[in-house]
Design brief:
The longest helix is centred in the first third of the chain and has 17 residues, at about 20-35. Strand 6, helix 10 and strand 7 form a beta-alpha-beta unit. The protein has a single domain (about 15-55, about 70-280), classed as Thiamin diphosphate (ThDP)-binding fold, Pyr/PP domains (Rossmann fold, 3-Layer(aba) Sandwich), CATH 3.40.50.970. It has about 280 residues and is an alpha/beta fold. It contains eleven helices and seven strands.
């Protein structure tokens, strides 16, 4: 088993293939219009979103109400563009809509909202997503939909909310073996490094103490994500937790691992062009 330090090193050094670069450039359409948004989180979790939509989730392209779909909750709703890019790619709405991001008359806001086709829950208030996912997982069980899974993506900074741990108690107590918790562990929150603000380590041991299966992975390694998530979606003895070690702002070489790029409010054309160049060169 690889050590945490080795996984973190690999996440920092891994390059991006053409699909990962293309998805990042799709997100840049939105930033070009709005000039603002949560760059860091959207790019840190993009490989997680890519693997879920390309290889793991059961859904029908363009049909948000498909009854036997898996459910996906993005608790850090401010990273909405990571999901919006995949929803556009999977024909839930036209890609041209990305260019209206954060316009007053656009459904695509700064956080995830249910009015966007394919978004299961309005999120963005820290710590709410897991509780919503638990409700969905319980509902699916009561309906006898035993082949449907619920995936909840959590940010690392929002672990400072007590609601996350209250939800963890409930998930374990109710034996929600149809629930997979995915942690985007990029180690940077809006105010600075997570370790200086919220003492998370030993993070894996904390989740294990709630009676859950815990796995750790390089969150930018597409092949490893595919293999592990495919296994976890079939592993039905406990709640599964996947800690994904990622890089804040992955692909923007001049903005990685810095809280300054968690949110950007004044992205001018020159900076966006530099972001395009950085992504294209990240091979």
């Amino acid at each position: 088993m690889k050590s945490n330090s080795k996984i973190i090193e690999e996440a920092s050094n891994i390059k991006l293939d053409q699909r990962s670069r293309d998805l990042r450039k799709l997100i840049l359409r939105s930033f070009k219009n709005s000039g603002k948004g949560h760059v860091g989180s959207a790019f840190s979790m993009l490989e997680i979103m890519r693997v879920l939509y390309d290889s793991i989730l059961n859904y029908e392209n363009g049909d948000p109400s498909y009854p036997d779909r898996d459910r996906l909750i993005i608790s850090p709703g401010w990273a909405s563009l990571a999901q919006f890019a995949l929803l556009a790619d999977k024909h839930f709405f036209e890609k041209s809509l990305l260019s209206t991001f954060m316009n007053l008359d656009s459904p695509l806001g700064g956080c995830s909202e249910e009015l966007v086709p394919g978004v299961e829950a309005t999120t963005g208030a820290c710590g709410h997503g897991l509780s919503i996912g638990i409700g969905m997982a319980l509902s699916l069980k009561l309906q006898g939909k035993n082949n449907c899974n619920v995936f909840v993506v959590l940010g690392d900074g929002e672990h400072g909310e007590g609601s996350v741990w209250e939800a963890a108690i409930s998930a374990s107590k109710n034996g929600l073996n149809n629930l997979v918790i995915i942690i985007d562990y990029n180690k940077v929150q809006c105010s600075g490094p997570v370790k200086s603000l919220t003492s998370l380590e030993p993070l894996a041991d904390k989740w294990i103490s709630f009676g859950m299966n815990v796995t750790e992975v390089n969150g930018h390694d597409v092949n490893e994500l595919k293999k592990i998530l495919a296994s976890l979606s079939k592993q039905r003895d406990k709640v599964n937790v996947l800690i994904c070690h990622t890089v804040m702002g992955k692909g923007i070489t001049f903005g990685e691992d810095t809280a300054d790029w968690h949110w950007k409010g004044k992205l001018d054309e020159e900076t966006i062009n530099q972001m395009y160049d950085s992504i294209e060169g990240y091979k």
